[in-house]
Amino acid sequence: MCGIAGYIGNLDASSVLLVALERLKYRGYDSAGIATQENGELTIGKSAGRLKELQDIYDEQGSFGNCGIAHTRWATHGTPSTENAHPHCNTDQSIAVVHNGIIENHERLRRQLTDQGAIFQSQTDSEIIPHLLATYYDGDPIKAVQACIKELEGSYAFAAIFADHENRIIVARHGSPLLIGRGPHAMMLASDIPALLPHAHDVCVLEEGQIADIRNDSVEIVDADSNNVDPAFKKIEINFNEVSKGEYDSFMAKEIAEQPEVVQRIIDDRISNGALADIAVEVDLSQIQHVVFLACGTSWHAALLGKRFLEHYARIHVEVDISSEYRYRNPIAAGGTLVVAISQSGETADTLASLRLARSMFMPVVSLVNVVDSSIARESEGALPLLCGPEIGVASTKAYTGQLTALFLFALQMAKAKGRLTAEQEKEAIDSLLPIPELVAGTLKNAEEHVLDAVEVLAPANATVFLGRGGEHATALEGALKLKEIAYVHATGYPAGEFKHGPIALVTNQLPVVCIAPQGAMHDKMLSNLEEVRARQGRIIGVGQSSDRDLKNLSDHLFPVDLAGNELLQPLLSILPLQRYSYHVARRRDCDVDQPRNLAKSVTVE
Ligand code: F6R
Known about the structure:
- The chain is of the alpha/beta class.
- It has 3 domains: 3-243, 4-Layer Sandwich (Glutamine Phosphoribosylpyrophosphate, subunit 1, domain 1); 250-434, 3-Layer(aba) Sandwich (Rossmann fold); 444-606, Glucose-6-phosphate isomerase like protein, domain 1 (Rossmann fold), CATH 3.40.50.10490.
- It is 36% helix and 24% strand.
- It has 18 helices and 27 strands.
- The strands form 5 sheets. The chain has an 8-stranded antiparallel beta sheet, with helices on one face.
- Helix 15 links the parallel strand 23 and strand 24 (490-495).
- Fructose -6-phosphate (F6R) binds next to helix 8 and helix 15.
Protein backbone atom coordinates (compact mmCIF):
# COMPACT_ATOMS: atom_id res chain seq x y z
CA MET A 1 0.00 0.00 0.00
CA CYS A 2 1.06 3.65 -0.32
CA GLY A 3 2.58 5.00 -3.49
CA ILE A 4 5.88 6.79 -3.84
CA ALA A 5 7.30 8.84 -6.70
CA GLY A 6 10.28 11.04 -7.49
CA TYR A 7 11.40 13.35 -10.27
CA ILE A 8 14.57 15.06 -11.44
CA GLY A 9 14.32 17.01 -14.70
CA ASN A 10 13.85 20.42 -16.20
CA LEU A 11 10.22 20.92 -15.16
CA ASP A 12 8.76 22.07 -11.89
CA ALA A 13 9.01 18.91 -9.74
CA SER A 14 5.86 19.50 -7.67
CA SER A 15 3.64 19.76 -10.79
CA VAL A 16 5.03 16.52 -12.22
CA LEU A 17 4.73 14.77 -8.86
CA LEU A 18 1.12 15.85 -8.33
CA VAL A 19 0.23 14.10 -11.59
CA ALA A 20 2.25 11.04 -10.55
CA LEU A 21 0.41 10.92 -7.21
CA GLU A 22 -2.92 11.11 -9.03
CA ARG A 23 -1.89 7.91 -10.87
CA LEU A 24 -0.75 6.24 -7.67
CA LYS A 25 -3.65 7.14 -5.47
CA TYR A 26 -5.24 3.72 -6.06
CA ARG A 27 -2.49 2.50 -3.70
CA GLY A 28 -3.71 4.68 -0.85
CA TYR A 29 -5.32 8.07 -0.62
CA ASP A 30 -5.81 9.23 2.95
CA SER A 31 -3.05 11.86 2.87
CA ALA A 32 -0.26 12.96 0.56
CA GLY A 33 2.86 15.08 0.43
CA ILE A 34 5.83 16.28 -1.57
CA ALA A 35 9.40 17.33 -0.71
CA THR A 36 11.50 19.31 -3.17
CA GLN A 37 15.15 20.28 -3.08
CA GLU A 38 16.56 23.61 -4.30
CA ASN A 39 19.52 25.82 -3.38
CA GLY A 40 20.56 23.70 -0.43
CA GLU A 41 17.09 23.61 1.11
CA LEU A 42 14.19 21.21 1.32
CA THR A 43 10.59 22.40 1.02
CA ILE A 44 7.80 20.17 2.27
CA GLY A 45 4.11 20.35 1.42
CA LYS A 46 1.61 17.87 2.87
CA SER A 47 -2.05 17.48 3.63
CA ALA A 48 -4.53 14.98 5.01
CA GLY A 49 -7.46 14.16 2.76
CA ARG A 50 -7.73 14.09 -0.99
CA LEU A 51 -4.99 15.13 -3.39
CA LYS A 52 -6.91 18.25 -4.34
CA GLU A 53 -5.91 19.74 -0.99
CA LEU A 54 -2.23 19.20 -1.71
CA GLN A 55 -2.72 20.71 -5.14
CA ASP A 56 -4.28 23.80 -3.47
CA ILE A 57 -1.21 24.17 -1.22
CA TYR A 58 1.10 24.19 -4.24
CA ASP A 59 -1.19 26.51 -6.20
CA GLU A 60 -0.89 28.95 -3.31
CA GLN A 61 2.74 28.60 -2.27
CA GLY A 62 4.26 28.15 -5.74
CA SER A 63 6.97 25.67 -6.61
CA PHE A 64 10.50 25.04 -5.42
CA GLY A 65 12.88 23.26 -7.72
CA ASN A 66 13.24 20.53 -10.29
CA CYS A 67 13.98 17.65 -7.95
CA GLY A 68 11.53 16.08 -5.54
CA ILE A 69 9.90 13.04 -3.97
CA ALA A 70 6.23 12.39 -3.21
CA HIS A 71 3.92 10.02 -1.38
CA THR A 72 0.26 9.03 -1.22
CA ARG A 73 -0.61 7.19 1.97
CA TRP A 74 -2.71 4.28 3.20
CA ALA A 75 -2.40 4.53 6.97
CA THR A 76 -0.83 1.66 8.88
CA HIS A 77 0.85 3.32 11.88
CA GLY A 78 -0.87 6.50 13.01
CA THR A 79 -4.12 8.11 11.87
CA PRO A 80 -4.48 9.80 8.49
CA SER A 81 -3.33 13.33 9.43
CA THR A 82 -0.99 16.00 8.11
CA GLU A 83 1.68 15.11 10.72
CA ASN A 84 1.59 11.46 9.69
CA ALA A 85 1.62 12.23 5.96
CA HIS A 86 4.96 11.69 4.20
CA PRO A 87 7.56 13.02 3.44
CA HIS A 88 9.12 12.72 6.89
CA CYS A 89 12.30 14.53 7.88
CA ASN A 90 15.12 14.26 10.38
CA THR A 91 15.25 16.73 13.25
CA ASP A 92 16.98 19.59 11.37
CA GLN A 93 14.93 18.98 8.21
CA SER A 94 17.97 18.32 6.04
CA ILE A 95 16.85 14.86 4.88
CA ALA A 96 13.38 13.99 3.59
CA VAL A 97 12.07 10.47 3.00
CA VAL A 98 8.99 8.83 1.45
CA HIS A 99 8.40 5.19 2.33
CA ASN A 100 6.16 2.34 1.20
CA GLY A 101 6.10 -0.72 3.48
CA ILE A 102 6.26 -1.38 7.21
CA ILE A 103 9.28 -1.05 9.50
CA GLU A 104 8.59 -3.77 12.05
CA ASN A 105 11.28 -2.84 14.58
CA HIS A 106 10.28 0.83 14.58
CA GLU A 107 9.44 1.02 18.28
CA ARG A 108 12.88 -0.07 19.42
CA LEU A 109 14.58 2.20 16.86
CA ARG A 110 12.40 5.15 17.86
CA ARG A 111 13.39 4.74 21.53
CA GLN A 112 17.04 4.46 20.58
CA LEU A 113 16.94 7.52 18.29
CA THR A 114 14.94 9.58 20.80
CA ASP A 115 17.56 8.81 23.47
CA GLN A 116 20.15 10.12 21.01
CA GLY A 117 18.23 13.42 20.70
CA ALA A 118 16.05 12.88 17.62
CA ILE A 119 12.75 14.75 17.76
CA PHE A 120 9.88 12.84 16.15
CA GLN A 121 6.91 14.67 14.64
CA SER A 122 4.64 11.76 13.70
CA GLN A 123 3.36 8.41 14.96
CA THR A 124 4.56 6.59 11.85
CA ASP A 125 7.05 3.77 11.57
CA SER A 126 8.45 5.51 8.47
CA GLU A 127 9.85 8.53 10.32
CA ILE A 128 12.53 6.22 11.70
CA ILE A 129 14.25 6.29 8.30
CA PRO A 130 15.25 9.98 8.00
CA HIS A 131 16.38 10.02 11.65
CA LEU A 132 18.46 6.89 11.13
CA LEU A 133 19.92 8.30 7.92
CA ALA A 134 20.91 11.45 9.83
CA THR A 135 22.85 9.46 12.42
CA TYR A 136 24.93 7.82 9.67
CA TYR A 137 25.23 10.79 7.31
CA ASP A 138 28.71 12.26 6.88
CA GLY A 139 28.22 13.82 3.44
CA ASP A 140 27.88 10.52 1.54
CA PRO A 141 24.18 9.66 1.09
CA ILE A 142 24.86 6.18 -0.30
CA LYS A 143 26.91 5.18 2.72
CA ALA A 144 24.16 6.53 5.00
CA VAL A 145 21.50 4.48 3.21
CA GLN A 146 23.68 1.34 3.29
CA ALA A 147 24.16 1.70 7.04
CA CYS A 148 20.51 2.57 7.64
CA ILE A 149 19.01 -0.43 5.88
CA LYS A 150 21.15 -2.80 7.92
CA GLU A 151 19.05 -1.74 10.91
CA LEU A 152 15.63 -1.98 9.31
CA GLU A 153 13.40 -5.01 9.74
CA GLY A 154 10.23 -5.32 7.67
CA SER A 155 9.55 -4.13 4.16
CA TYR A 156 10.40 -0.94 2.38
CA ALA A 157 10.78 0.93 -0.83
CA PHE A 158 11.98 4.39 0.11
CA ALA A 159 13.36 7.48 -1.58
CA ALA A 160 15.46 10.11 0.18
CA ILE A 161 16.63 13.57 -0.77
CA PHE A 162 19.34 15.51 1.04
CA ALA A 163 19.38 19.32 1.34
CA ASP A 164 23.06 19.48 0.40
CA HIS A 165 22.81 17.32 -2.73
CA GLU A 166 21.32 18.99 -5.79
CA ASN A 167 19.41 16.84 -8.28
CA ARG A 168 19.98 13.58 -6.50
CA ILE A 169 17.57 10.99 -5.10
CA ILE A 170 18.67 7.84 -3.31
CA VAL A 171 16.30 4.86 -3.30
CA ALA A 172 16.39 1.46 -1.62
CA ARG A 173 14.13 -1.55 -1.87
CA HIS A 174 13.31 -4.60 0.21
CA GLY A 175 9.91 -6.23 -0.14
CA SER A 176 8.01 -3.33 -1.74
CA PRO A 177 8.12 -2.43 -5.43
CA LEU A 178 10.25 0.36 -6.86
CA LEU A 179 10.76 1.30 -10.49
CA ILE A 180 13.20 3.78 -11.99
CA GLY A 181 12.07 5.61 -15.12
CA ARG A 182 14.29 7.29 -17.69
CA GLY A 183 13.21 9.81 -20.31
CA PRO A 184 14.93 12.24 -22.65
CA HIS A 185 14.73 15.08 -20.12
CA ALA A 186 14.02 13.41 -16.81
CA MET A 187 14.74 10.62 -14.37
CA MET A 188 11.87 9.36 -12.26
CA LEU A 189 11.01 6.74 -9.71
CA ALA A 190 7.63 5.30 -8.74
CA SER A 191 5.86 2.34 -7.20
CA ASP A 192 4.16 1.61 -10.51
CA ILE A 193 4.63 2.35 -14.20
CA PRO A 194 1.64 4.67 -14.86
CA ALA A 195 3.14 7.27 -12.51
CA LEU A 196 6.26 7.45 -14.69
CA LEU A 197 4.29 8.59 -17.74
CA PRO A 198 4.74 10.62 -19.87
CA HIS A 199 8.22 11.76 -18.77
CA ALA A 200 9.92 8.34 -18.79
CA HIS A 201 10.13 6.06 -21.82
CA ASP A 202 12.23 3.29 -20.28
CA VAL A 203 11.90 1.50 -16.97
CA CYS A 204 14.28 -0.42 -14.72
CA VAL A 205 12.97 -2.58 -11.86
CA LEU A 206 15.04 -2.16 -8.71
CA GLU A 207 15.67 -5.65 -7.33
CA GLU A 208 15.46 -6.80 -3.72
CA GLY A 209 18.26 -5.37 -1.58
CA GLN A 210 19.46 -2.88 -4.20
CA ILE A 211 20.18 0.81 -3.67
CA ALA A 212 20.14 3.31 -6.54
CA ASP A 213 21.72 6.73 -6.80
CA ILE A 214 19.53 8.64 -9.25
CA ARG A 215 20.82 11.90 -10.74
CA ASN A 216 19.46 14.02 -13.58
CA ASP A 217 21.48 12.17 -16.22
CA SER A 218 22.48 8.83 -14.67
CA VAL A 219 21.57 5.94 -12.39
CA GLU A 220 24.06 3.90 -10.41
CA ILE A 221 22.88 0.75 -8.68
CA VAL A 222 24.61 -1.29 -5.98
CA ASP A 223 23.40 -4.61 -4.64
CA ALA A 224 23.18 -5.76 -1.03
CA ASP A 225 26.90 -6.75 -1.11
CA SER A 226 27.90 -3.31 -2.46
CA ASN A 227 28.69 -4.66 -5.95
CA ASN A 228 27.89 -2.33 -8.85
CA VAL A 229 25.03 -3.56 -11.02
CA ASP A 230 24.24 -2.35 -14.55
CA PRO A 231 20.74 -0.86 -14.63
CA ALA A 232 18.62 -2.99 -16.99
CA PHE A 233 16.25 -0.54 -18.68
CA LYS A 234 13.53 -1.67 -21.04
CA LYS A 235 10.91 0.21 -23.01
CA ILE A 236 7.65 1.10 -21.25
CA GLU A 237 4.87 -0.66 -23.15
CA ILE A 238 1.85 0.98 -21.50
CA ASN A 239 0.41 3.99 -23.30
CA PHE A 240 -1.32 7.03 -21.88
CA ASN A 241 -4.87 5.94 -22.89
CA GLU A 242 -4.55 2.85 -20.73
CA VAL A 243 -4.05 4.95 -17.63
CA SER A 244 -6.71 7.60 -18.24
CA LYS A 245 -10.48 7.36 -17.79
CA GLY A 246 -11.20 8.51 -21.34
CA GLU A 247 -14.93 9.00 -21.85
CA TYR A 248 -15.88 7.24 -18.58
CA ASP A 249 -16.75 8.81 -15.25
CA SER A 250 -14.57 6.35 -13.34
CA PHE A 251 -11.87 3.75 -13.89
CA MET A 252 -14.27 1.13 -12.60
CA ALA A 253 -16.83 1.92 -15.34
CA LYS A 254 -14.06 1.89 -17.95
CA GLU A 255 -12.61 -1.37 -16.73
CA ILE A 256 -16.00 -3.13 -16.64
CA ALA A 257 -16.56 -2.02 -20.25
CA GLU A 258 -13.12 -3.27 -21.31
CA GLN A 259 -13.91 -6.89 -20.43
CA PRO A 260 -14.82 -8.12 -23.92
CA GLU A 261 -11.44 -6.98 -25.27
CA VAL A 262 -9.57 -8.35 -22.24
CA VAL A 263 -11.03 -11.83 -22.76
CA GLN A 264 -10.32 -11.58 -26.49
CA ARG A 265 -6.70 -10.54 -25.86
CA ILE A 266 -6.08 -13.58 -23.68
CA ILE A 267 -7.71 -15.88 -26.24
CA ASP A 268 -5.55 -14.39 -29.02
CA ASP A 269 -2.42 -14.86 -26.94
CA ARG A 270 -3.04 -18.43 -25.77
CA ILE A 271 -4.75 -19.95 -28.80
CA SER A 272 -3.03 -20.29 -32.12
CA ASN A 273 -4.61 -21.80 -35.25
CA GLY A 274 -7.49 -23.15 -33.19
CA ALA A 275 -5.22 -25.04 -30.74
CA LEU A 276 -3.58 -24.26 -27.42
CA ALA A 277 -0.36 -22.27 -27.87
CA ASP A 278 2.71 -23.28 -25.83
CA ILE A 279 3.07 -21.52 -22.51
CA ALA A 280 6.39 -20.44 -21.03
CA VAL A 281 6.64 -22.18 -17.67
CA GLU A 282 9.71 -24.01 -16.45
CA VAL A 283 7.62 -26.81 -15.01
CA ASP A 284 6.80 -30.16 -16.57
CA LEU A 285 3.01 -30.07 -16.27
CA SER A 286 2.72 -33.73 -17.22
CA GLN A 287 4.27 -34.69 -13.86
CA ILE A 288 1.90 -32.63 -11.74
CA GLN A 289 -0.47 -34.64 -9.52
CA HIS A 290 -1.84 -31.92 -7.32
CA VAL A 291 -2.36 -28.16 -7.60
CA VAL A 292 -2.57 -25.61 -4.80
CA PHE A 293 -4.00 -22.21 -5.71
CA LEU A 294 -2.91 -19.30 -3.51
CA ALA A 295 -4.64 -15.94 -3.71
CA CYS A 296 -6.52 -13.21 -1.82
CA GLY A 297 -9.83 -11.41 -2.33
CA THR A 298 -11.18 -11.40 -5.86
CA SER A 299 -8.22 -13.46 -7.06
CA TRP A 300 -9.19 -16.12 -4.51
CA HIS A 301 -12.71 -16.17 -5.97
CA ALA A 302 -11.16 -16.73 -9.40
CA ALA A 303 -9.12 -19.58 -7.92
CA LEU A 304 -12.33 -21.29 -6.76
CA LEU A 305 -13.33 -21.45 -10.42
CA GLY A 306 -9.81 -22.46 -11.45
CA LYS A 307 -10.30 -25.54 -9.26
CA ARG A 308 -13.46 -26.47 -11.15
CA PHE A 309 -11.76 -26.02 -14.53
CA LEU A 310 -8.76 -28.13 -13.54
CA GLU A 311 -10.79 -30.87 -11.91
CA HIS A 312 -13.06 -31.07 -14.92
CA TYR A 313 -10.43 -31.15 -17.66
CA ALA A 314 -7.22 -32.40 -16.04
CA ARG A 315 -8.89 -34.62 -13.40
CA ILE A 316 -6.31 -33.75 -10.77
CA HIS A 317 -6.75 -32.89 -7.15
CA VAL A 318 -6.86 -29.15 -6.48
CA GLU A 319 -6.76 -27.17 -3.24
CA VAL A 320 -7.61 -23.49 -3.00
CA ASP A 321 -6.00 -21.61 -0.17
CA ILE A 322 -6.26 -18.05 1.06
CA SER A 323 -2.68 -16.80 1.10
CA SER A 324 -2.91 -15.22 4.54
CA GLU A 325 -3.98 -18.59 5.96
CA TYR A 326 -1.59 -20.79 4.01
CA ARG A 327 1.49 -18.82 5.09
CA TYR A 328 0.79 -19.43 8.79
CA ARG A 329 -0.13 -23.08 8.51
CA ASN A 330 2.28 -25.94 8.28
CA PRO A 331 1.31 -27.01 4.76
CA ILE A 332 2.24 -30.37 3.32
CA ALA A 333 4.67 -30.32 0.42
CA ALA A 334 3.61 -33.50 -1.34
CA GLY A 335 5.69 -34.60 -4.33
CA GLY A 336 4.14 -33.65 -7.67
CA THR A 337 2.49 -30.52 -6.25
CA LEU A 338 2.35 -27.35 -8.32
CA VAL A 339 1.57 -24.09 -6.54
CA VAL A 340 -0.24 -21.48 -8.61
CA ALA A 341 -0.23 -17.94 -7.22
CA ILE A 342 -2.94 -15.68 -8.63
CA SER A 343 -2.61 -11.93 -8.26
CA GLN A 344 -3.63 -8.90 -10.28
CA SER A 345 -0.99 -6.63 -8.77
CA GLY A 346 1.67 -9.26 -8.26
CA GLU A 347 2.60 -7.47 -5.05
CA THR A 348 0.07 -8.77 -2.51
CA ALA A 349 2.17 -9.34 0.61
CA ASP A 350 0.41 -12.50 1.79
CA THR A 351 0.49 -14.16 -1.64
CA LEU A 352 4.16 -13.26 -2.03
CA ALA A 353 4.95 -14.69 1.42
CA SER A 354 3.07 -17.92 0.72
CA LEU A 355 4.81 -18.25 -2.65
CA ARG A 356 8.14 -17.93 -0.83
CA LEU A 357 7.04 -20.51 1.73
CA ALA A 358 6.07 -22.94 -1.04
CA ARG A 359 9.40 -22.42 -2.78
CA SER A 360 11.29 -22.93 0.47
CA MET A 361 9.62 -26.36 0.57
CA PHE A 362 10.83 -27.03 -2.99
CA MET A 363 7.41 -26.83 -4.62
CA PRO A 364 7.42 -25.27 -8.09
CA VAL A 365 5.40 -22.06 -8.32
CA VAL A 366 3.70 -20.69 -11.42
CA SER A 367 1.87 -17.38 -11.22
CA LEU A 368 -0.98 -15.69 -13.04
CA VAL A 369 -0.33 -11.97 -12.74
CA ASN A 370 -1.45 -8.83 -14.46
CA VAL A 371 1.60 -6.71 -13.59
CA VAL A 372 4.38 -8.55 -15.39
CA ASP A 373 7.35 -6.97 -13.62
CA SER A 374 5.87 -7.56 -10.20
CA SER A 375 7.56 -9.42 -7.35
CA ILE A 376 5.23 -12.44 -7.62
CA ALA A 377 5.93 -12.73 -11.35
CA ARG A 378 9.67 -12.48 -10.88
CA GLU A 379 9.82 -14.98 -8.05
CA SER A 380 7.82 -17.65 -9.88
CA GLU A 381 9.14 -20.43 -12.13
CA GLY A 382 6.82 -19.17 -14.80
CA ALA A 383 4.49 -16.16 -14.93
CA LEU A 384 1.47 -16.22 -17.19
CA PRO A 385 0.51 -12.61 -17.91
CA LEU A 386 -3.18 -11.77 -17.59
CA LEU A 387 -2.93 -9.10 -20.31
CA CYS A 388 -5.77 -7.04 -18.82
CA GLY A 389 -3.93 -3.70 -19.09
CA PRO A 390 -3.54 -1.54 -15.98
CA GLU A 391 -6.41 -2.01 -13.53
CA ILE A 392 -6.68 1.24 -11.61
CA GLY A 393 -10.13 1.16 -10.01
CA VAL A 394 -9.68 -0.31 -6.55
CA ALA A 395 -12.45 -2.87 -7.08
CA SER A 396 -11.17 -5.62 -9.32
CA THR A 397 -13.40 -6.23 -12.35
CA LYS A 398 -11.59 -6.87 -15.61
CA ALA A 399 -8.79 -8.70 -13.80
CA TYR A 400 -11.39 -11.18 -12.50
CA THR A 401 -12.78 -12.07 -15.92
CA GLY A 402 -9.21 -12.09 -17.23
CA GLN A 403 -8.20 -14.53 -14.49
CA LEU A 404 -11.13 -16.82 -15.28
CA THR A 405 -10.22 -16.88 -18.97
CA ALA A 406 -6.55 -17.55 -18.23
CA LEU A 407 -7.42 -20.25 -15.69
CA PHE A 408 -9.72 -21.99 -18.15
CA LEU A 409 -6.92 -22.11 -20.71
CA PHE A 410 -4.38 -23.17 -18.08
CA ALA A 411 -6.65 -26.09 -17.14
CA LEU A 412 -6.74 -27.15 -20.78
CA GLN A 413 -2.92 -26.89 -20.97
CA MET A 414 -2.57 -29.06 -17.90
CA ALA A 415 -5.08 -31.59 -19.21
CA LYS A 416 -3.25 -31.75 -22.54
CA ALA A 417 0.16 -32.12 -20.90
CA LYS A 418 -1.19 -35.00 -18.86
CA GLY A 419 -2.68 -36.68 -21.90
CA ARG A 420 -6.21 -36.18 -20.61
CA LEU A 421 -7.48 -33.99 -23.44
CA THR A 422 -8.03 -35.46 -26.87
CA ALA A 423 -7.70 -33.23 -29.94
CA GLU A 424 -11.47 -33.36 -30.22
CA GLN A 425 -11.99 -32.30 -26.60
CA GLU A 426 -9.43 -29.53 -27.04
CA LYS A 427 -11.29 -28.20 -30.06
CA GLU A 428 -14.62 -28.42 -28.29
CA ALA A 429 -13.34 -26.57 -25.23
CA ILE A 430 -11.69 -23.87 -27.33
CA ASP A 431 -14.78 -23.49 -29.49
CA SER A 432 -16.82 -22.91 -26.34
CA LEU A 433 -14.49 -20.06 -25.31
CA LEU A 434 -14.33 -18.24 -28.64
CA PRO A 435 -17.82 -16.64 -28.46
CA ILE A 436 -17.29 -15.39 -24.87
CA PRO A 437 -15.99 -11.88 -25.73
CA GLU A 438 -19.14 -11.20 -27.76
CA LEU A 439 -21.35 -12.69 -25.05
CA VAL A 440 -19.62 -10.52 -22.43
CA ALA A 441 -20.35 -7.43 -24.55
CA GLY A 442 -23.97 -8.54 -25.11
CA THR A 443 -24.59 -9.34 -21.43
CA LEU A 444 -23.23 -5.97 -20.31
CA LYS A 445 -25.46 -4.19 -22.80
CA ASN A 446 -28.65 -6.18 -22.17
CA ALA A 447 -28.44 -6.17 -18.40
CA GLU A 448 -28.01 -2.42 -17.92
CA GLU A 449 -31.64 -1.25 -17.92
CA HIS A 450 -32.67 -4.11 -15.60
CA VAL A 451 -29.83 -3.30 -13.25
CA LEU A 452 -30.89 0.36 -13.16
CA ASP A 453 -34.51 -0.61 -12.40
CA ALA A 454 -33.40 -2.76 -9.47
CA VAL A 455 -31.06 -0.08 -8.16
CA GLU A 456 -33.89 2.43 -8.20
CA VAL A 457 -35.76 0.28 -5.68
CA LEU A 458 -33.02 -1.53 -3.76
CA ALA A 459 -30.16 0.98 -3.42
CA PRO A 460 -31.24 2.03 0.11
CA ALA A 461 -31.13 -1.57 1.46
CA ASN A 462 -28.43 -1.95 4.09
CA ALA A 463 -27.74 -5.63 3.55
CA THR A 464 -27.86 -8.04 0.63
CA VAL A 465 -27.42 -11.80 0.33
CA PHE A 466 -25.95 -13.44 -2.77
CA LEU A 467 -26.67 -17.12 -3.43
CA GLY A 468 -25.18 -19.44 -6.01
CA ARG A 469 -24.31 -23.09 -6.49
CA GLY A 470 -21.41 -24.79 -8.21
CA GLY A 471 -19.32 -22.24 -10.12
CA GLU A 472 -21.86 -19.56 -9.29
CA HIS A 473 -20.94 -19.82 -5.63
CA ALA A 474 -17.77 -17.94 -6.62
CA THR A 475 -19.98 -15.42 -8.43
CA ALA A 476 -22.03 -14.98 -5.23
CA LEU A 477 -18.87 -14.34 -3.20
CA GLU A 478 -17.50 -11.93 -5.79
CA GLY A 479 -20.84 -10.10 -6.19
CA ALA A 480 -21.05 -9.65 -2.43
CA LEU A 481 -17.46 -8.41 -2.22
CA LYS A 482 -18.09 -5.79 -4.93
CA LEU A 483 -21.15 -4.45 -3.12
CA LYS A 484 -19.38 -4.32 0.25
CA GLU A 485 -16.24 -2.67 -0.94
CA ILE A 486 -17.61 0.10 -3.12
CA ALA A 487 -21.16 0.70 -1.86
CA TYR A 488 -20.51 -0.07 1.85
CA VAL A 489 -23.53 -2.36 1.94
CA HIS A 490 -23.14 -5.36 4.19
CA ALA A 491 -23.32 -8.32 1.85
CA THR A 492 -22.68 -12.00 2.14
CA GLY A 493 -22.16 -14.61 -0.55
CA TYR A 494 -23.34 -18.11 0.28
CA PRO A 495 -23.51 -21.51 -1.38
CA ALA A 496 -27.26 -21.72 -1.85
CA GLY A 497 -27.45 -25.26 -0.45
CA GLU A 498 -26.16 -23.95 2.87
CA PHE A 499 -28.74 -21.19 3.11
CA LYS A 500 -31.25 -23.08 5.14
CA HIS A 501 -28.57 -24.08 7.63
CA GLY A 502 -28.76 -20.67 9.25
CA PRO A 503 -28.61 -17.57 7.05
CA ILE A 504 -32.20 -17.94 5.87
CA ALA A 505 -33.11 -16.45 9.24
CA LEU A 506 -32.01 -13.09 7.78
CA VAL A 507 -34.76 -13.01 5.17
CA THR A 508 -37.44 -10.36 5.63
CA ASN A 509 -39.41 -8.30 3.15
CA GLN A 510 -36.59 -5.73 3.36
CA LEU A 511 -33.76 -8.03 2.33
CA PRO A 512 -32.57 -8.20 -1.30
CA VAL A 513 -31.46 -11.74 -2.14
CA VAL A 514 -29.52 -12.13 -5.37
CA CYS A 515 -30.05 -15.65 -6.71
CA ILE A 516 -27.64 -16.62 -9.47
CA ALA A 517 -29.57 -19.25 -11.39
CA PRO A 518 -28.56 -19.59 -15.03
CA GLN A 519 -29.47 -22.73 -16.98
CA GLY A 520 -27.37 -25.75 -16.13
CA ALA A 521 -27.07 -28.62 -13.71
CA MET A 522 -27.87 -26.51 -10.65
CA HIS A 523 -30.74 -24.54 -12.14
CA ASP A 524 -33.63 -26.47 -10.59
CA LYS A 525 -31.94 -26.61 -7.20
CA MET A 526 -31.58 -22.83 -7.38
CA LEU A 527 -35.25 -22.43 -8.21
CA SER A 528 -36.04 -24.28 -4.98
CA ASN A 529 -33.89 -21.75 -3.14
CA LEU A 530 -35.78 -18.92 -4.82
CA GLU A 531 -39.07 -20.48 -3.68
CA GLU A 532 -37.80 -20.58 -0.11
CA VAL A 533 -36.80 -16.93 -0.22
CA ARG A 534 -40.03 -15.94 -1.83
CA ALA A 535 -42.07 -17.81 0.79
CA ARG A 536 -40.40 -15.52 3.36
CA GLN A 537 -41.05 -12.38 1.28
CA GLY A 538 -37.41 -11.68 0.44
CA ARG A 539 -36.84 -9.33 -2.49
CA ILE A 540 -35.35 -11.45 -5.22
CA ILE A 541 -32.95 -10.44 -7.93
CA GLY A 542 -32.67 -13.41 -10.26
CA VAL A 543 -29.61 -13.74 -12.50
CA GLY A 544 -30.24 -16.01 -15.47
CA GLN A 545 -31.57 -16.26 -18.97
CA SER A 546 -34.29 -13.76 -19.94
CA SER A 547 -36.23 -16.62 -21.54
CA ASP A 548 -36.37 -18.46 -18.20
CA ARG A 549 -40.05 -18.07 -17.26
CA ASP A 550 -39.79 -19.84 -13.92
CA LEU A 551 -36.94 -17.61 -12.84
CA LYS A 552 -38.77 -14.53 -14.06
CA ASN A 553 -41.94 -15.46 -12.17
CA LEU A 554 -40.07 -15.97 -8.93
CA SER A 555 -37.93 -12.82 -9.20
CA ASP A 556 -38.77 -9.19 -8.43
CA HIS A 557 -36.01 -8.21 -10.83
CA LEU A 558 -34.25 -10.33 -13.43
CA PHE A 559 -30.71 -9.55 -14.56
CA PRO A 560 -30.52 -11.27 -17.94
CA VAL A 561 -27.29 -13.05 -18.82
CA ASP A 562 -26.53 -14.76 -22.10
CA LEU A 563 -26.02 -18.50 -22.11
CA ALA A 564 -22.33 -19.34 -22.29
CA GLY A 565 -22.83 -22.70 -24.00
CA ASN A 566 -20.19 -24.37 -21.86
CA GLU A 567 -21.61 -24.31 -18.34
CA LEU A 568 -18.13 -24.03 -16.85
CA LEU A 569 -17.78 -20.63 -18.51
CA GLN A 570 -21.13 -19.27 -17.33
CA PRO A 571 -19.61 -17.42 -14.30
CA LEU A 572 -17.73 -15.20 -16.77
CA LEU A 573 -21.11 -13.79 -17.74
CA SER A 574 -23.05 -14.02 -14.46
CA ILE A 575 -20.70 -11.65 -12.64
CA LEU A 576 -21.17 -8.84 -15.17
CA PRO A 577 -24.58 -7.46 -14.11
CA LEU A 578 -23.46 -7.76 -10.48
CA GLN A 579 -20.43 -5.54 -11.16
CA ARG A 580 -22.75 -2.97 -12.72
CA TYR A 581 -25.23 -3.34 -9.85
CA SER A 582 -22.57 -2.54 -7.25
CA TYR A 583 -21.32 0.34 -9.35
CA HIS A 584 -24.80 1.93 -9.59
CA VAL A 585 -25.69 1.28 -5.95
CA ALA A 586 -22.41 2.93 -4.96
CA ARG A 587 -23.10 5.95 -7.14
CA ARG A 588 -26.63 6.24 -5.73
CA ARG A 589 -25.18 6.21 -2.24
CA ASP A 590 -22.65 8.88 -3.21
CA CYS A 591 -19.63 6.63 -2.80
CA ASP A 592 -16.39 7.12 -4.68
CA VAL A 593 -16.24 3.92 -6.75
CA ASP A 594 -12.58 4.24 -7.68
CA GLN A 595 -11.35 5.03 -4.20
CA PRO A 596 -13.53 3.33 -1.61
CA ARG A 597 -12.79 4.25 1.99
CA ASN A 598 -10.13 2.32 3.91
CA LEU A 599 -8.93 0.39 0.84
CA ALA A 600 -5.89 0.40 -1.40
CA LYS A 601 -5.34 -1.39 -4.67
CA SER A 602 -2.18 -3.30 -3.81
CA VAL A 603 -2.16 -4.82 -0.36
CA THR A 604 1.61 -4.81 0.10
CA VAL A 605 1.43 -5.08 3.87
CA GLU A 606 0.06 -7.89 6.00
C1 F6R B 1 -11.41 -6.67 -4.61
C2 F6R B 1 -9.98 -6.60 -4.75
C3 F6R B 1 -9.14 -7.33 -3.77
C4 F6R B 1 -7.96 -8.01 -4.49
C5 F6R B 1 -7.02 -8.63 -3.45
C6 F6R B 1 -5.89 -9.39 -4.11
O1 F6R B 1 -12.07 -5.97 -5.62
O2 F6R B 1 -9.46 -5.96 -5.63
O3 F6R B 1 -9.87 -8.24 -3.03
O4 F6R B 1 -8.46 -8.97 -5.35
O5 F6R B 1 -6.48 -7.61 -2.66
O6 F6R B 1 -5.15 -8.55 -4.93
P1 F6R B 1 -4.19 -9.12 -6.03
O7 F6R B 1 -5.01 -9.81 -7.04
O8 F6R B 1 -3.51 -7.90 -6.59
O9 F6R B 1 -3.25 -10.05 -5.35
